[in-house]
Amino acid sequence: MPPTITAFERSPDGGKGLARDTRARWALEEAGQPYQVRLVSFTAMKQPAHLALQPFGQIPTYQEGDLALFETGAIVLHIADRHSGLLPIEANARARAIAWMFAALNTVEPPILEREQTAYVVGGKPWLQELLPILHDRIRARLSQLSARLGDADWLDGGFSAGDLMMVSVLLRLQSSSLLDDYPNLAAYVARGEARPAYKRAFAAQLLVNAG
């Protein structure tokens, strides 16, 4: 039986590819692996059946036989470890690709999420406009470092890897802002990720769920 991932029954982003199930879909598509999707509502995500799979009531989860995983980093790493196409064969290159996965989730994504969540939580508070430039500066600091490291290369370390999959997925969260405008190499990097056939298939599948 192919693995089953969970996804939003109705994604908050309306199918723009920002929900984290897109990352799992993309990894499976890159690996050329069939998979099934079980859609869950926001109510079902907080029920015991889902909490047994994902103790924090989030998506996605990944089930394959008697294995159940949560957290996209763990899911993508598991897929990449079991199937070719997402991690280099050479040991040191493989380790570096995994390091970039962690960098995407632990170093680059946190200030981006803080900006999103702050704007959502505080809404129209008058001090939000004073706080946003501070949050933007934190994001730009990481983007500057990442841009300098990427340089004119196509991918972060040689060929495309799970590290690039996670990093592009994180940077996609900035497309509704102008924060990537000062980093043309990063904007081109994201565009290369979006142009990959596997990403297009994953995006289309996620969009289809929200099109009805």
Structure notes:
There is one protein chain. With 212 residues, the protein is of the alpha+beta class. It has 2 domains: 4-86 and 198-211, Glutaredoxin (3-Layer(aba) Sandwich), CATH 3.40.30.10; 91-196, Glutathione S-transferase Yfyf (Class Pi), Chain A, domain 2. Helix content is 57%, strand content 8%. It has 9 helices and 4 strands, in the order E-H-E-H-H-E-E-H-H-H-H-H-H. Strands 2-1-3-4 form a 4-stranded mixed β-sheet. Helix 1 (21-30) packs parallel to helix 4 (72-82) and helix 5 packs antiparallel against helix 6 (128-150). The model has no long low-confidence stretch (mean pLDDT 93).
SSE run? EHEHHEEHHHHHH
Shape: globular
Q: Give the helix proportion (percent range).
A: 55-70%
Largest sheet: 4 strands, mixed
Radius of gyration: 17 Å
Would you report the number of β strands?
A: 4
* Corresponding CATH architecture of the largest domain: Up-down Bundle
Question: What value does the average pLDDT take?
Answer: 93
C-alpha termini separation: 28 Å
Give the C-level CATH assignment of the largest domain.
Mainly Alpha
Describe the strand arrangement of the main beta sheet, using strand numbers.
2-1-3-4
Structural class: alpha+beta
Characterize the quaternary organization of these chains. single chain
